[in-house]
Structures are given as structure tokens and as C-alpha cells.
Amino acid sequence: MEWSMTERILVAYASRYGSTEEIARVIADEIAALGYEVDCMNVMEVEEVAPYAAVVAGSPIYMGKWLPEAVDLAKRFRIGLNERPLAVFAVGYSMKEEDDMIRKSARASMNELRMYVHAQAEGLFAGKFDPVGMSTTDLQIMKMAGAAPGDARDWTAVRNWARALPSVLFTLDVEK
Fold first, then answer.
1. Which one is predicted more confidently, 145 or 113?
2. Rounded to whole angstroms, how far apart are CA atoms 22 and 42?
3. Which pTM was predicted?
4. Average pLDDT, whole number, for the chain?
5. Handedness of CA 16, 102, 65, 21 (dihedral sign)
6. CA quadruple 18, 117, 95, 15: dihedral, nearest 10
7. Torsion of CA 19, 127, 80, 42, to 10 degrees
8. Element holding 87 (H helix, E strand)
9. Domains of the chain, each with CATH number or no CATH
10. Which PROSITE patterns match (predicted)?
11. Does 174 or 68 have the greater pLDDT score?
12. In the prediction, which pLDDT does 147 show?
């Protein structure tokens, strides 16, 4: 199938405190700057994937997994998502460390998602830990993990991944 830049791409995200949303919006902006029409929205706002030539979906990693609403997107739209190119990304503050074990754990956060869909591209990005506005439970988890507040997002890595997506997604045959 031949793809054109007039095709729409969906960037859908789950975000608990805004960091993953900010990453999704940068991804959407980078793809749009390449000339594609892009819609960026929370996974809970997605009503259908049929209008899109490709989908990019992302979630923060909490307790070693994607947020339930992000996995639910894959469950609800698994047929449509498997009929078009799909890229997924996970965001975790622990990924500020360039460590193979941490990256392996971050990849494992998408295991439940893989039961429903097959992504042609996966991105792993460090996140941000800002205690302002966080729930008491999430703050305790971060403290138990020994995390200090900070923003570890690598915007260059996010932008480079986003700019590469159309060439990766639109040159692959998606199994129908």
C-alpha cells in the first residue's frame, strides 16, 4: 500500500501527571512538521482508529506496567490496530539511568499490550518526577524507589524517534 502525507496519524497517550502527555505532544508536533496530519489525544478520548493510517500510543510505566486505560485502548481496538502500522512508547523515570536491566524492565512493561497488538516500533523514554500534585501513594512509591525529583526527559531522543516513525511505519507491510 502506498502512503501519502495527507493520511492522518493518531498519537494517543495515557498520562497520570502530564509528563507522558508532553512527550506525546512533542511526538505529534514532530510528525506534523514532516507534513502529516496528526491528531493527539488521551487514550480515553479515542472513539475509533479507522480514520487513521497509523497509530502511535504511549503510556507511563507504573508498578512495572502500562496504565490500564492504555492497555484498554489495545484491547478495544485490537483488530483496527493490527490492520495498520502501530508504534508504541513507554515513559519511566527510572529510565534516566542507561542500564540494560532497566531497559529490559521497561520493555516488559508492554507485555500485556503485546497480547493484543503487534507494534512495528517501540520507544522507551525517561520521564519526570515532580512531587507537586502527586498522590500520596505514588509519592511513597517514588520515595521507596529512592527517586529524587527531577526531569530526565531527553527531548532530542524523543524528537529523533518521532521523526523516524513515518519512514519506519510506512515502509512495513502490516499483517492483515
1. 113
2. 11
3. 0.88
4. 89
5. positive
6. 10
7. -10
8. strand 86-92
9. 8-170 (3.40.50.360)
10. FLAVODOXIN_LIKE
11. 68
12. 78
d(CA 103, CA 123): 10
DSSP code per residue over 4-73: -TTSEEEEEE--SSSHHHHHHHHHHHHHHHTT-EEEEEEGGG---STT-SEEEEEEEEETTEE-HHHHHH
How buried is residue 122: exposed, middle or buried, by Cβ count under 10 Å (0-12/13-18/19+)? middle
Give the type of residue at 133.
Answer: G
Q: How far apart are CA 102 and CA 79, in angstroms?
A: 31
Is pLDDT at 4 greater than 70 in this prediction? no
AA letter at 4: S
pLDDT over 70 (residue 156):
yes
Given a contact cutoff of 8 angstroms between Cβ atoms, the answer to whether 66 and 110 are in contact is yes
Cell numbers 523515570: residue: 93
Strand partners, 91: 60, 125
Select from 64, 63, 71, 105 the least CA-distant residue to 88: 71
